[in-house]
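Archive entry: two folds, one per protein. Generate the first.
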Amino acid sequence: MALRKNVYELTQRRLENIFAEFDNIYVSFSGGKDSGVLLNLCIDYIRTHNLNRKIGVLHLDYEAQYKMTTEYVDRMLSQNKDILDVYRICVPFKVTTCASMYQTYWRPWEESMRDLWVRRMPEGCYSVKDFPFYDPDMWDYEFQFKFCEWLHRRKKARRTCCMVGIRTQESLNRWRTIYRENVYSKFMGLKWTKKLYDNIFNVYPIYDWQTTDVWTANGKFGWGYNRLYDLYYKAGISLDRQRVASPFISPAQESLHLYRAIDPNTWGRLIGRVNGVNFSGIYGGTSAVGWQSVKLPEGHTWESYMHFLLSTLPESTRNNYLEKLSVSIDFWRRKGGCLSDETIQKLKNAGIEITVMPDTNYKTTKKPVRMEYLDDIDIAEFREIPTFKRVCICILKNDHACKYMGFALNKSERERKEKILEKYKDIL
């Protein structure tokens, strides 16, 4: 009986497939542990097999990041410049921020804010002038989406792929990215691929890796990594909370205060760069912004408290939350969320009125359950259940995208994405 292959061996098979089938390959490299290990895997594969080719590296430089992250990125790119085509992007697209209830996004490298930039723009980078498709209303994820088209045409490629270092272990949204697409959107039916356009694909070679696999590989092969993780470890930050990407997103705010100790010069620039950074740095890991135990004020239900919180917000921010709430209520009433048999039984035992549907289009053994929003519920699966308390937590966390409620894109965001896809579908 053949021994089961480990994730490293499986990834080598995937890389063999990728390098054989795609003439244009690039890696999305953030400077974090996952994209770093993926880039190292690709570099080692090229050198080990003596491939006479280069791969591209896409690095979105967000301006506001640890000095150690910038140093790691510089080191990786310079040490392997003989086999890398580097695309270091310094563009003022919109980037989500959860540091402020008033500011839902910020722009790195915004020209009007030049005097407040956290650091100087790196030499040799690509800026606005290099991308005719750039639009001021464009978000960072939209830019990445259009970049692959731009590079495909620039390289006159037959087939292009972007390697992305996401792992299903990290979040439900990342699990969905891998598993929710139908087979027709895959390259050769491979589940770790996703079609973007004709002959352009995203591929996820390390989708089945665990966090321990990442660090084992770094140790075993002596690969360089972002030394910021060492400081996070010494500071007692759990492995799943160690973030080196945008410091203003919700998952990173618990460690935002560490900027003051680890990189005080950067911290000083951050305070004046993005609204609410100092407050988030002080209170980001406390109940003041809903991170830990949120207590219901006397005389309120969670629904009434939600409306009170909404009344304190700017109109645009308030309407954003209300729109997402409306979408969520409609979803749970008409389609239902997928829950395990155990969770379903807990709801029944609590006397909650639910309708269990027989099947779902999602690839899961869980059953779709239709129900109304609850005020609150005290079960371990709290984050899977629609409650007004979860909405309150989103508001308190300045979670404008409502990721805590399981949201990805809202209706207007989906419509915008669909329009972009429709507009550019015939370009290639």
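Generate the second and append.
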Amino acid sequence: MSYYRGSLRAPSIILTMQEHQLPVDSRTQWEAMTEWPGLGRKLRFLVAPANKGGCSYYRAWSPFETLHKQFPNLFEFRYNENPLEIDTEKQAEGTKGYEDLNWCDVFFTQNLCNFGGPATIRGIGLAKEMGKFVWYDTDDLLTNIYDDHRLKQLYVENDLENLTKYIYANSDLVTVTQSKFAERVAPFCTGVLAVIKNAIDYELPAWNAPKRPPMRKNQVRVGWVGGIHHEADVKEFAAVPSMVNQRAGRERVHWGFYGRPPKDPNNPKDWQQEVWDNYERTLLKGFRGAKNWDVYQALPSSDYGIMYSNIDIAIAPLQNNEFNDSKSDIKVAECGRYKVPLVATDVGCYSDTIVNGQTGYLVPPDASPKEWTRILTSLIKNPRKVREMGENLHSITENLFDLQKVVYHRLDVLKFAMNQKEAKMKGVASD
């Protein structure tokens, strides 16, 4: 089945926090409101996060919970990861009449839910039929999955590229994480398209843990924090750890690989464990002698930040493709909080914040493992430089990824997009 065909009826409008041409309501004005403008009551949100993973936490759970706490007079929220009551065994919808969809004014959904792509577009389709405002948010370029992605065949078999285009074309507001991503999906959007940065609630305990000291004096801990879709990226880095061990000295470096999912005793053939088995084989290839590495289990999203308290240099090797080039810079926000400089492939939007020798290093996509080895070896031999770069990154991330700023930007974008929809329905242009 093809979900998307043909060209679009209208161009989208791309808005960013830095340069969005909006009728911006000031913070004071928002805080003075006791009801949603023009509605006469609270605005009702049905938030349908894709899952409970990191992306959903940053893009759905955390910002909307912040909005609710800050503006209890403006908003009501219901959270439901399965508003259609999909029975995963029967692959069928429930029969209760979609109570939450009937109740809400705004239907917010994100990525492709755990119940499958068709469930996502079914929810959007029903919301549209009911006259609800549809807000779709994503941090993955699902219109262009690269060939080496583990789930590439699944995407092809389920026609998820066209499904995603359908979602873009039928959403009143689409929000993504960075400008290059927006430019790539703009041709498929008929409503408002906005860039809204990720943000972290730095007041949470997980982002205020004390920095743990290394096990040895002058030892530098290099950390890779990764999920389950980085097999191609890890291959780019395969030869580097053992080469750094040889050049810098094993006693001066400790490698930490963070994010292995806990084993499920009821699922011995869990493909996620297989992925991490492959990670370890790849990253530890060539290791000889005393152990100077550890693999750490993934933490819940609310505790995620604690991992960085045990890292001195973070690495983000990435394959050069459009999917990765559309990724957000959330790792910068994570690293900066714990004063950890980032060494990353120059892909995506890292160049907005990472300056060579000041806040980290960007490695050209076509660089050989020798270049990675040179940079990391130099830093491991100079812990003072590492600390200086970490301080520099910290000083800019505190402001750049401020959750309060992002929350107000969300409000501005939402009001603008709702006005645009209303104007379209009236057949006039919005101011």
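Annotation attached to the second fold: The CA atoms of residues 250 and 290 lie 8 Å apart. The radius of gyration is 23 Å.
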